[in-house]
């Protein structure tokens, strides 16, 4: 083998590894499959720039963007975009409970980037950073974070989110994670790839074994004043003798300071759309099966990731941009029909 070529291989591998770490994963899926609603995305970013939302505190920025997305139709399984290939995706024309909060957080982070980076492909990199283990989509369904509990732990470990649940009167959650194994027929990837089912079951068993916390419904009024605009609120529901997350949304404080629940919902009272619901404690009490909540506070992008996502970033910037262990994320959750 040519010696000069041999010496080039380690450098090439370093660059490729760094690119993958930062979410520059390749996909064979067409853009139209990965990104739906370009016009609404561009309108959102234009409004944000015009109204200087980038100057808002980050949590308020997240809730302001979420509020601007109210009225979008509810659409389930928006992440199941192919029979085989997993890829970061976004749909601004239809959202489920997971993608509503995920898009709100990603758009808030995008406002910290130069305007020249306010494009769909960069947005998908921000989604990738948040949705997948280590912030990297490998093209495999298994690289996605499929349970909110797993997402919270993963993002917290990478500094993209602060999981406040334990310190806010949180108690150990007796988890039951079986939704995907029992309902595999509802998941496009699992229907078309039977071999995934065993690995998904192992993932669910791992999440069940890990230590997770929840705030009991009766304790929520006691910590309500500590929840801020833009906090991610996961809803735990009773599942046999255990509990599991069944829904998710954002905290929103109205002009009177009331903490309300903002989410994408299937409720007919809201017309199956993204909606600003009642006071959080009122919402929890509305459904007897609700057991409590988790609370996660989104954080802005670290400076090293901002530079790596900016258009002027070069190979050297990318290769030193971040440490692989410091980036991670999770997928989507199917809202229960009654929520």
Describe the fold and architecture:
The chain has 339 residues and is an alpha+beta fold. It has helices at residues 3-21, 31-34, 38-50, 58-68, 97-110, 120-131, 148-157, 179-182, 188-192, 196-209, 220-223, 280-286, 303-309, 315-319; strands spanning 35-36, 90-91, 161-163, 171-172, 213-216, 232-239, 242-253, 259-264, 274-279, 290-298. The chain contains 14 helices and ten strands. Strands 3, 4, 5, 6, 7, 8, 9 and 10 form an eight-stranded antiparallel β-sheet that branches. It is globular, with a radius of gyration of 20 Å.
- Our measurement of the CA-to-CA distance between the termini, rounded to an integer number of angstroms, reads 63 Å
Class computed from helices, strands and strand pairing: alpha+beta
Bin the helical content: 25-40%
Give the total of beta strands: 10
Mind describing the biggest β-sheet? Answer: 8 strands, antiparallel
Q: Give unreliable regions as ranges.
A: 1-27, 314-339
- Reading the helices and strands in chain order gives HHEHHEHHHEEHHHEHEEEEHEHH
Radius of gyration: 20 Å
Shape: globular
Mean pLDDT across all amino acids: 87
Task: Work out the helix count.
Answer: 14
User: How much strand content do the residues show?
Assistant: 15-25%
């Amino acid at each position: 083998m040519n010696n000069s070529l041999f010496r080039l291989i380690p450098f090439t591998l370093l660059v490729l590894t760094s690119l993958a770490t930062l979410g520059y994963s390749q996909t064979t899926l067409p853009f139209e499959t990965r990104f739906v609603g370009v016009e609404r995305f561009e309108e959102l970013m234009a409004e944000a720039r015009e109204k200087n939302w980038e100057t808002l505190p980050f949590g308020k920025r997240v809730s302001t963007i979420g509020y601007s997305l109210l009225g979008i139709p509810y659409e389930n399984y928006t992440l199941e975009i192919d029979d085989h290939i997993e890829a970061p995706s976004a749909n601004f024309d239809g959202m489920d409970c997971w993608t509503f909060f995920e898009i709100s957080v990603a758009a808030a982070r995008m406002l910290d980037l130069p305007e020249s980076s306010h494009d769909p492909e960069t947005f998908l990199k921000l989604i990738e950073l948040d949705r997948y283990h280590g912030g990297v989509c490998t093209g495999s369904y298994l690289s996605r974070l499929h349970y909110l509990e797993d997402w919270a732990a993963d993002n917290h470990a990478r500094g993209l989110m602060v999981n406040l649940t334990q310190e806010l009167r949180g108690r150990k959650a007796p988890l039951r994670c079986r939704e995907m194994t029992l309902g595999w027929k509802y998941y496009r990837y699992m229907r078309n790839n039977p071999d995934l089912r065993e690995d998904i079951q192992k993932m669910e068993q791992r999440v069940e074994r890990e230590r997770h916390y929840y705030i009991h419904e009766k304790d929520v009024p006691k910590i309500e004043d500590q929840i801020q605009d833009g906090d991610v609120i996961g809803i735990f529901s009773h599942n046999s003798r255990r509990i599991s997350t069944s829904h998710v949304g954002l905290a929103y404080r109205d002009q009177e300071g009331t903490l309300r629940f903002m989410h994408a919902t299937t409720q007919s009272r809201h017309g199956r759309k993204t909606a600003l619901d009642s006071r959080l404690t009122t919402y929890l009490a509305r459904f007897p099966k609700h057991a409590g909540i988790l609370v996660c506070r989104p954080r802005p992008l670290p400076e090293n990731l901002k530079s790596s996502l900016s258009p002027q970033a070069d190979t050297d910037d990318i290769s030193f941009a971040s440490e692989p262990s410091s980036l991670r994320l999770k997928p989507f959750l199917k809202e229960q029909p009654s929520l």
